[in-house]
Specification:
Layout: E1 12-16, H1 33-47, E2 51-55, H2 75-82, E3 86-89, H3 96-101, E4 107-110, H4 133-152, E5 157-159
Parallel strand pairs: 1-2, 1-5, 2-4, 3-4
Length: about 160
């Protein structure tokens, strides 16, 4: 199935994009190439009558919340480029209600996925040489599955 033959009308699509854009010291985008690159896909879903949930990472916060890497800084720019007011979910893993409330033609941007260590899947705070590392890795894999299930639960389809 491709986005060309999927019927987005009345559906919610969760889309993985690369909005890891460079920001200046004031949080302003210095190069919006990556946002512009995603626009044809995002606009098609909206034009076809779908609702849009956008997920991305920014920077390398190493599984911890860091305001410097918050996607909240790009909401206005994404809204402007899409021509639609973009809503923002301040915690990507706690956006069930925001996603459920989305109507066709509406857009929700999830907070930086990498604020959760599950996004990269590396155990945090444990050295690879530690004997407990393998157990930590197994626990992370299980946690990753739950994280993915949560994100998937927001939408009817996934677009990469």
């Amino acid at each position: 199935m491709t986005i060309d033959n999927y019927k987005f009308a009345g559906k919610k699509a969760i889309v993985r994009v690369d909005f890891n854009v460079p920001l200046d010291e004031n949080g302003k985008i210095t190069d919006d190439t990556r946002i512009r690159g995603a626009l044809p896909t995002l606009k098609k879903i909206l034009a076809d009558g779908g609702a849009l949930i956008i997920m991305s990472h920014m920077g390398k916060p190493k599984g911890k919340v860091n305001p410097k890497f918050s996607l909240s800084q790009i909401v206005d720019a994404v809204s402007e480029k899409l021509g639609v007011a973009v809503k923002f979910a301040p915690d990507c893993a706690k956006a069930t209600d925001a996603a459920a409330a989305l109507q066709p033609g509406e857009v929700l941007l999830l907070e930086n996925l990498r604020f959760y260590p599950e996004e990269e899947g590396k155990p945090v705070g444990i050295d690879k040489e530690d004997p407990a590392y393998e157990d930590a890795k197994k626990a992370m894999k299980a946690s990753q599955k739950e994280f993915a299930k949560t994100l998937a639960s927001y939408a009817d389809c996934y677009v990469n």
